[in-house]
Design goal:
Layout: H1 11-28, H2 34-48, H3 51-63, H4 68-73, H5 85-98, H6 109-118, H7 121-143
Helix pairs in contact: 1-7, 2-3, 2-5, 2-7, 5-6, 5-7
Length: 161
């Protein structure tokens, strides 16, 4: 599969990607646990069918020391025993926040209450922002048909500035 368009070789596309990456850096540096961030990005990417982002976030999570069993089970997190209650709340919010068009009520009050039980305000700000940013990235990559398989951990570090 060949990409339709390379955003990174287009001057405006690269400028936008740099801005998005810098937003992502603020989230990365937040108090939201790195493992939760990785699980959220992977799950949203799976839902959205973004091969590039599934590749990216699986490899980054692995490089950060995430357990392979947890990565393999993230798509079936409800039927798995390897996730904490806090991670389950974040994954539920990720699914409901990603599938807004599929759920007429958006994010349920029950899911929001579970998130409030496990995360403080700064972590919630990071979590909500992370879900929005990963969905935007998924859409960018799916639209231009950016394939998975070639990502190398850290390859976008040069965008930070």
């Amino acid at each position: 599969m060949e990409p339709r368009f390379d955003l990174m070789t287009n001057a405006l596309g690269a400028k936008i990607a740099k801005r998005i990456y810098n937003v992502a850096l603020a989230i990365i540096q937040s108090p939201l646990p790195e493992s939760t961030q990785n699980l959220v990005m992977l799950r949203a990417s799976q839902i959205n069918g973004c091969g590039f982002c599934v590749d990216y976030h699986t490899k980054d999570a692995t490089a950060a020391g995430e357990d392979a069993t947890r990565l393999h089970l993230v798509a079936a997190w409800r039927e798995s025993t390897v996730f904490t209650d806090a991670e389950r709340a974040a994954l539920a919010l990720t699914e409901e926040g990603t599938r807004i068009a599929d759920a007429s009520g958006g994010v349920s009050d029950e899911t929001w209450a579970r998130v409030r039980e496990h995360y403080d305000d700064d972590q919630i700000a990071a979590l909500v922002s992370l879900i929005a940013v990963i969905n935007a990235n998924n859409r960018l990559n799916v639209i231009v048909r950016n394939p998975g398989g070639s990502y190398q951990p850290g390859q976008f570090a040069a965008l930070a500035n």
